[in-house]
Amino acid sequence: MPDTIDGRFDMLVLHLALVIARLKHEENELRQHLVNRFCNDMDDNLREIGASDIAVGKKVRRMAEAFQGRYAAYDAATDEATLKAALQRNVYAGRDVSGVSTLAHYVLTARSALAKQHPNVIASGKVQFS
């Protein structure tokens, strides 16, 4: 994954989507808190890099929409082939890259690790992705 703003955003969104998916059958408050914190963090980061007040709202809205779309795609990807396609489309912007297989394997491992963690552990911030 390239160390760029887009690359970092995609990795943050991927991990948030994994945690939100893990918590989807748990109480709603923690999931909502995490999504709110994500949006607030994006707002803070945009302001820190100099985005204007008018632009921040629009950009955060686009980022939240990007998160929702990616979350839906990753959550619906129940097999490796579908997951690879979703990752290639979202993380790699449709480019054919060999790293998609490694990333898909990581996501499957992370899902398994998250499934074994109690929501209270996740809420404490001691999340393990492997």
Strand-residue proportion:
under 5%
**Helix count?**
6
Give the integer mean of the pLDDT values. 92
Broad shape: globular
- SSE run: HHHHHH
In the predicted model, the low-confidence regions spanning at least 5 consecutive residues are: none
Distance between the termini: 18 Å
- How many E strands? 0
Bin the helical content: over 70%
List the helices and strands and how they pair.
Layout (H helix, E strand, L loop, with lengths): L4 H18 L5 H21 L4 H24 L3 H11 L8 H17 L3 H5 L7
Helix pairs in contact: 1-3, 2-3, 3-4, 4-5
Brief summary:
By secondary structure, the protein is mainly alpha-helical.
Task: List the main descriptive attributes of the protein structure presented here.
mainly alpha; 130 residues
Describe the overall structure:
The radius of gyration is 15 Å and the shape is globular. It contains six helices and no strands. By secondary structure, it is mostly helical.
